[in-house]
Amino acid sequence: MNDYANITQITLLVRRLDIGTKVIRVRQHSQENQLFKYRKYLSYPPKEKVKLARANMDGQLMFYGAVFANFCINDNPRLTCLLETNKEVLDDTFVGKKDLTYSLC
Which terminus in the chain has less CB density within 10 A, N or C? Predict the structure, then answer.
C-alpha cells in the first residue's frame, strides 16, 4: 500500500475548541530580523511553502497550532509548536540561530 492510501485510511481525530480556547502558532522567519506585523502572516503559510505533513498534502493549506490542554500538569504548547516547525530542535549537531514569531490566537 502506498503512502497516500495509508494516509487516507487513517481515522480522523477531532477536537472541539470552545470559545476562549487559546491556540499558539509558530512561524519561522525566512530572513534574519524579519517581523510579522499582521495577523494574515501568522495564520496559514504561503501555499507554495506547504509540503506533505501529518494532516495535509503538498500545497494544501492546514492550520497547525498547539492548545493549552486542561488535563496536563506541565503543558507546554510553545515546545510542541517549536518541534513541529523546526527539525533542528532535536538535532544535536545543529549550530546556529532561528528567528521565530509566536502568536496567540
Answer: N
Q: What would the pLDDT profile of 15-33 be if each residue is shown by its tens digit?
A: 777 888 888 888 878 888 8
Neighbours of 12 (CB within 10 A): 5
Per-position DSSP letters for 44-72, written without gaps between them? S--GGG---BTTB-TT------EE--TT-
Contact 94, 21 (CB under 8 A): no
- Selection from 90, 66, 68 nearest residue 80 by Cα: 66
The HSE-up count of residue 58 (CA atoms within 13 Å, CB side) is: 2
Q: Is the pTM of this model over 0.85?
A: no
Strands 23-28 and 100-104: antiparallel
